[in-house]
Amino acid sequence: MNAVSTSPTGSAVAVTSSELLAAVASRELAGKNTVFAGIGLPTLAVSLAQLTVAPGIEIVYESGVCGAHPSQLPETIADAVLITDSEAVLPMTALFGYVLQGGRIDVGFLGAAQIDRWGNLNSSVIGDWHAPKVRLPGSGGAMEVMANSGEVFVVMRRHDPRSFMSELDFCTSPGPDRALRDGIRPLGAGVTRVITDLGILARGGVGEELRLVATHPGVTVDQVRAATGWDLQAADELTTIEPPTAAELRLLREDVDPDRVYLR
Amino acid sequence: MNAVSTSPTGSAVAVTSSELLAAVASRELAGKNTVFAGIGLPTLAVSLAQLTVAPGIEIVYESGVCGAHPSQLPETIADAVLITDSEAVLPMTALFGYVLQGGRIDVGFLGAAQIDRWGNLNSSVIGDWHAPKVRLPGSGGAMEVMANSGEVFVVMRRHDPRSFMSELDFCTSPGPDRALRDGIRPLGAGVTRVITDLGILARGGVGEELRLVATHPGVTVDQVRAATGWDLQAADELTTIEPPTAAELRLLREDVDPDRVYLR
Amino acid sequence: MQNPVAESTTPVPRPDKTMTMRDAIAAFVPDGATVALEGFTHLIPTAAGHEIIRQGRKDLTVARMTADIVTDQLIAGGCVRKLVSSFVGNSTAGSLGELRRRIETGRPAPLEFEEYSHYGMICRYLAGAQRLPFYPLRSYGGSDVPAVNPGIRKVTSPFPGPDGEAEQIYVVPPLNPDVTIVHAQRADRAGNTQIWGLTGIQAEAVYAAKRAIIVVEEVVADEVIRSDPNRTVIPAHAVDAVVACPRGAHPAFAQGYYDRDGDFYRSWSHISKDPERLQAWLDEWIRGTRDHADYLEKLGDEHWSGLAVGEAWSEPVNYGRRL
Amino acid sequence: MQNPVAESTTPVPRPDKTMTMRDAIAAFVPDGATVALEGFTHLIPTAAGHEIIRQGRKDLTVARMTADIVTDQLIAGGCVRKLVSSFVGNSTAGSLGELRRRIETGRPAPLEFEEYSHYGMICRYLAGAQRLPFYPLRSYGGSDVPAVNPGIRKVTSPFPGPDGEAEQIYVVPPLNPDVTIVHAQRADRAGNTQIWGLTGIQAEAVYAAKRAIIVVEEVVADEVIRSDPNRTVIPAHAVDAVVACPRGAHPAFAQGYYDRDGDFYRSWSHISKDPERLQAWLDEWIRGTRDHADYLEKLGDEHWSGLAVGEAWSEPVNYGRRL
């Protein structure tokens, strides 16, 4: 990334990849009420959205914390600073059963080692599950976030063919199309946005593939296609993503993460 | 009832029906750890058992209170005095799901309008359910106490053919024999003791009918048979119930219910 | 892509959901709605029930595990077409006159009744809160209740039972009320609700509902709630309206606020036994009062002093703060 | 009929279940047992895991939603035959070296692994706690996990779906550990356990188990627990042993007692990457310490001062007392 912004003090500071992704993701949260998010880029994006496009938006953490008012930027989803001064700490049964499966999350943020054109995700293994080349952490709550959130945003720092695959090595968290083929009625739209260092892929819901809908300035469609392991289709009206504005950068740098814990 | 006991002060005081039933029921609790009980006779019995045959026994209330240490005798299972100073107050999901259905109750106490020879209970209606002569309160938690407790004790103040019936008007809370016929595996033994103003009926578990095993002094087998709506069988070795001892009566009157709220 | 323009960094505003009882009932309890009123002996949303009667709602389906005085009043008030319940009785204090008349005689109008056990109702709320198509439970085997309630069905487990054979179990369907109304000790303006003492099935009944009204003894400052987030039984995102209504659970109790009005419970059996006396009572105490404050004024301060409770404070716990 | 002879009216004695960690592990964790160790990032029963290693337990099946450092240590300690988990990673701080070696290379010995999602594990505990034959959940449709885990099956709902057609749903089987071990802030001697901050799945994991060991920062007077019975997450009747073991969750945190040792989490990726270094670490810090007090002494007071937390006390609530 080579976007450059002017800092509040007037000196030019390079926009980091984290700032770019957080700013772009935050804009997608307009009109949303509840977000299920992990620490790092997703929380940066939601915190920025709270200060910009979605003032009332609430983050629900996988640890059960609702309405956090942390005194410092948390290091994990279970950080003690998220709990003190929060509005509610839910037991796991309520968090996963009533909030997530209950359908009270508008947008879930997920990451993954591999994603395919339908927005299915693999976070379990590279290679064969029974004798994996790399054993990854597995689902955690990802399968539930995928199955139950209204829609899912995926933020990927690196858009490359090893992650954007034609065939997943293993499907941990399936989108609604796979669920339907398995005879299970899906409750959410699955992945609707994939925000990467090259651009934004989007799909509307059941039956739709991820398509390229926007690119960062200077990124070409061919570049994104080359970085994608399937025959990626592009929208007819492809837009260019506006780089983080001075206001967004100032909020991120001065209010959301002044110690630059995640804005590295 | 016409048993007479000598009060601690030396004067003869007639033993009330409540005292008799509470004392007799308390003796049946030897060796038990957890009891699910309502207010009134069952709590009197358990409180007396705590002071006599089962010092460690714990009452779990349908309201979710465990380890109550009430400052006064409670009026209902949800009385505020049961909650203040208690050891735990459980939400309904934990009480019914984890404690009761989870199999952590040794003995459940139940009452009913009608009982049959298998210990099935009716607390829903007198007459036809769709146009009842009397609409009774219904199951409450009785169905779950019956299905999930290790065994069930029933205390009936009045042993008569209108309550001890050959055919129930309606079965609200079935014992294990009815469950089996319905294709459902029972988890508990069902009713094992019925303690009445005439004596004690008992059964061991699946496949067994309630049999008369003991009578109060002066009560004949024929008297109990006449008060029972089915062809009641009596045990070969019928025992005579020892009336409440002086110690039991003193504990009931001085410690358990000094204001005689339930010992009327 | 949207371009945010916010220039300020003021703290994120929390929504203010406080409303009057009148407005909350008017907004969220339409005729014909399925309304869950929960609270197990403790914290019964009586004042909300009275306001439903004042506003003359019709054809409601009322879900309430322990259908007690407020249910009898709602039925007598002509608000209820159908009752879904697991216990229909006036606590330990006697009968519900109107409910029994309706079911036993069908007069002045029949009442549709769907019967469950307590855990059957709990499991219906659990299924509703979790968007499950059904919830399994170990009771109902051999009971006559499934014969009169076709909502209770069987499923065969895909795992063998302990004897190696196929195992069957009863299930109940989800209950998703149009609105759930509960009473609580306190909430903040956004709806973070704290309950202590008996917490019952309130959280699940709220999560299962499309809308939720929380009636509280006190609306408190955000800082009070945030000092003890584990005490929050219902989080703000599940709440639509917060109604401040002190003593709104009468004749039920609110742990730490006031005691149960045992005399009223006992008197209800007599009041409700006679339909004319019951309607006169409704006219005087509910239809004849403007709101719950008016009802309380009519009851009088002396009445309330008899229900006052003393102090038994919890030991605070330390949530800690990073140094 | 039995004839009671008690003559005294002393208060009912509560059982005293306090034990040393050594005795509790020796009594309730035999070779080959299924052991659930729960605590979601917060209150991880690390000290109990270390004692299992010290006592050289073999062939355990370990159930733990977030299999993290203590799980890696147990595997490296040769205690574990099979792992049942929904997340195998060192929090956000890197990898579990031993676990990855066992699964990726099968060296020095293979590790049987049963994979779930978080809610899959939660539902297994829910089914276990409720004696249900299965528990339904809305995820798993289309996932490859059921293909590698035959415990995850489907059931057809007896109620039609929204389209009127038959509806299928996945279910998981109950999990009933031989023993569940959890860490908590405080308990009384009988086992009434209070937890604040993240309460996770601890209660369900305990209720699902045949036996339960509660490790606590403090054993407190009965009066402390009884001042706030709603804070009791696990009641005494579900508990078999209470072990006082301050700082027993390290490197995890205990809300209000000490903070997370982030440096240790980060260092674990390096320690566990090299099998020899990992065994040397186990020799020095676990096998080479007599108990957790010894481990703490070795860590040193200075280390602990860096994890100290300040004060943020909850506002007390009034439980009330009848006047």
**Relative helix content of chain C:** 25-40%
- Please bin the fraction of helical residues of chain A: 10-25%
- Please give the CATH architecture of the largest domain in chain C: 3-Layer(aba) Sandwich
What is the level 1 CATH name of the largest domain in chain C? Alpha Beta
Q: Which architecture of chain A would the CATH scheme give at its second level?
A: 3-Layer(aba) Sandwich
Shape of chain C: globular
Let me know the number of strands of chain C.
17
User: Largest interface here, residues on each chain?
Assistant: A-D, 61 and 56 residues
**How many helix segments of chain A?**
8
Q: In CATH terms, what is the fold-level topology of chain A? A: Glutaconate Coenzyme A-transferase
Number of strands of chain A: 16
- Largest sheet composition of chain A: 8 strands, mixed
Output the strand order for the largest sheet of chain A: 4-3-7-12-13-14-15-16
Count of discrete structural domains of chain C: 2
Strand content of chain A: 15-25%
Protein name (chains C, D): Glutaconate CoA-transferase subunit A
GO molecular function (chains C, D): CoA-transferase activity
Keywords (chains C, D): Transferase
Family (chains C, D): Belongs to the 3-oxoacid CoA-transferase subunit B family.
Distinctive features:
A: 264 residues, alpha/beta, Glutaconate Coenzyme A-transferase, 8-stranded mixed β-sheet, two-stranded antiparallel ribbon, 24% helix, 23% strand, C: 323 residues, 2 domains, 3-stranded antiparallel β-sheet, 31% helix, globular, disordered N terminus
